[in-house]
Amino acid sequence: MSLEEAYLIDRLNPIHTGVDAPLWISCENSDRIPQVKAEVDGITFAVAITDQKLLSGDENYYRISTTVLIQLQMWVKLNRQALLEYWKQRLDTACFCCLMIRLPEHTK
Q1: In angstroms, how far apart are the furthest CA atoms of the chain?
Q2: Residues 6+ positions from 108 with CB-CB distance below 8 Å
Q3: Are the beta carbons of 27 and 46 closer than 8 angstroms?
Q4: Nearest-5° angle of CA 74, CA 79, CA 85?
Q5: Taking the alpha carbons of 85, 87, 90, 91 in that order, is the dihedral positive or negative?
Q6: Taking Cα atoms as reference points, which of 30, 45, 3, 25 lies closest to residue 97?
Q7: pLDDT tens, residue by residue, 2-20
Q8: Strand partners for 10
Q9: C-beta separation of 49 from 34 below 8 A
Q10: What per-residue string of b and e applies to 42-67 under the rule 16 or more CB within 10 Å gives b?
């Protein structure tokens, strides 16, 4: 990853999103569709922003926690518009964080 590419990616911690996994959001990149990436137990995967479908990721994607996948899909759906605006570089990180909706607390 180049330094320029690194500036286009932000990591969001579970405490801020309500998803039980760290998330990565990024700005528009011509070779990818709008997506949010996550990592659980060393397995990385992505969900499309537009329709929340699971995208191909790590070859062990079948071991992804169903709970985390559902949380991620719900979070992306709640934040779809802000995520798309961020993807298109119409929002910076600070503005996105102000607009971001956290998933409600849940019991484990």
Answers
A1: 40
A2: none
A3: no
A4: 145
A5: positive
A6: 25
A7: 544 444 578 899 999 999 9
A8: 25
A9: yes
A10: ebebbbbbeebeeeebeeeeeebeee
Q: Contact, 7 vs 25, CB < 8 A? A: no
Could you identify the residue written with the tokens 């079948």? 62
Annotate the chain with three-state secondary structure.
Answer: CCHHHHCCEEEECHHHHCCCCCEEEECCCCCCCCEEEEEECCEEEEEECCCCCEECCCCCHHHCCHHHHHHHHHHHHHCHHHHHHHHCCCCCHHHHHHHCCCCCCCCC
pTM summary value: 0.86
- The pLDDT tens digits for 70-102 are 999 999 999 999 999 999 999 999 999 999 999
More confident residue, 3 or 46: 46
Q: Which amino acid is at 98?
A: C
| pLDDT score for 94 | 93
